[in-house]
TrEMBL record:
<feature type="transmembrane region" description="Helical">
    <location>
        <begin position="123"/>
        <end position="142"/>
    </location>
</feature>
<feature type="transmembrane region" description="Helical">
    <location>
        <begin position="36"/>
        <end position="56"/>
    </location>
</feature>
<feature type="transmembrane region" description="Helical">
    <location>
        <begin position="94"/>
        <end position="116"/>
    </location>
</feature>
<dbReference type="InterPro" id="IPR036259">
    <property type="entry name" value="MFS_trans_sf"/>
</dbReference>
<keyword id="KW-0812">Transmembrane</keyword>
<protein>
    <submittedName>
        <fullName>MFS transporter</fullName>
    </submittedName>
</protein>
<keyword id="KW-1133">Transmembrane helix</keyword>
<feature type="transmembrane region" description="Helical">
    <location>
        <begin position="68"/>
        <end position="88"/>
    </location>
</feature>
<dbReference type="InterPro" id="IPR011701">
    <property type="entry name" value="MFS"/>
</dbReference>
<keyword id="KW-0472">Membrane</keyword>
<dbReference type="Pfam" id="PF07690">
    <property type="entry name" value="MFS_1"/>
</dbReference>
<dbReference type="InterPro" id="IPR053200">
    <property type="entry name" value="YfmO-like"/>
</dbReference>
<feature type="transmembrane region" description="Helical">
    <location>
        <begin position="187"/>
        <end position="207"/>
    </location>
</feature>
Length: 246
């Protein structure tokens, strides 16, 4: 943390003061924009799965603190690599929305597998590390997506988004612990997987208002090419009318 503080203080350029003061209710008002609310609720549900993985998995692993630390170190390495290297390339090739939906679907599948094999430490350890790959892509792209989701200032959009999404992070550890302790250790993973699947459905519902996020950045002036990744048409059998990307 000290290194991070020093890097922030000495390596980043000074940011100008905000042009105007914003009220505490402006982020709440910003959620009236459907595009921003869609991304925020998607993040709430995805964070529910993420914090279930983060907070509950150490209990069925039942390993030493060092062993669990090494497993989550592998998770962090995977997250860092895909967030820095894979996410921008996938975004340029396929567009933000298809990539986020695909990474969420894969994360949900990962949680479901962890639920099926919750009594097998090797599967749980591998599931944690593999989840880092999907979460790295999703963290990068969904955070970027929210900044352009509504015609509001970036700070306001970020505040509204964070207010909603961390509700999932607040509830998930407590609920996962209760379910694992009082019912069985598989159920928290299944509930997390279901929440992430709901996130895919919520994001699909914003396919039209978030149309600008469907376009690969490498083809911003052209219609997006057919994507082999997940789309609402493939996921839910929807027939959507193409909209302008301007």
């Amino acid at each position: 943390m000290t290194i991070a503080l020093a890097a922030t203080a000495f390596l980043l350029p000074a940011s100008p003061p905000a042009p105007r003061r914003t009220s505490i209710i402006e982020p709440l008002k910003a959620l009236r924009h459907r595009s921003l609310a869609t991304v925020a609720v998607t993040a709430l549900l995805y964070n529910f799965g993420f914090f279930t993985l983060l907070a509950f998995t150490p209990f069925p692993l039942a390993m030493s603190a060092r062993q669990i630390g090494l497993i989550f170190f592998g998770w962090g390495i995977g997250l860092a690599l895909t967030s820095v290297f894979a996410a921008p390339r996938l975004q340029r090739r396929f567009g933000t929305l298809p990539v986020v939906m695909t990474s969420l679907l894969l994360f949900a599948a990962d949680l479901a597998v962890m639920g099926v094999y919750a009594h097998h430490r090797g599967v749980l350890a591998a599931g944690v590390i593999v989840a880092g790959l999907f979460l790295g892509v999703n963290n990068t792209l969904i955070t970027e997506a929210v900044m352009g989701a509504a015609p509001v200032e970036r700070g306001t959009a970020s505040a509204a988004y964070s207010f909603v999404r961390f509700s999932g992070g607040a509830v998930a550890p407590w609920l996962a612990g209760k379910l694992g302790e009082e019912i069985n250790i598989q159920l928290p993973f299944y509930v997390g997987a279901f929440a992430v699947l709901l996130a895919v459905g919520v994001l699909a519902s914003g396919w039209k208002p978030l149309s600008h996020l469907r376009v690969p950045t490498a083809h911003s002036e052209a219609e997006p090419p057919p994507s082999p990744l997940l789309t609402p048409e493939r996921a839910f059998g929807l027939k959507l009318v193409p909209t302008s990307t301007q």
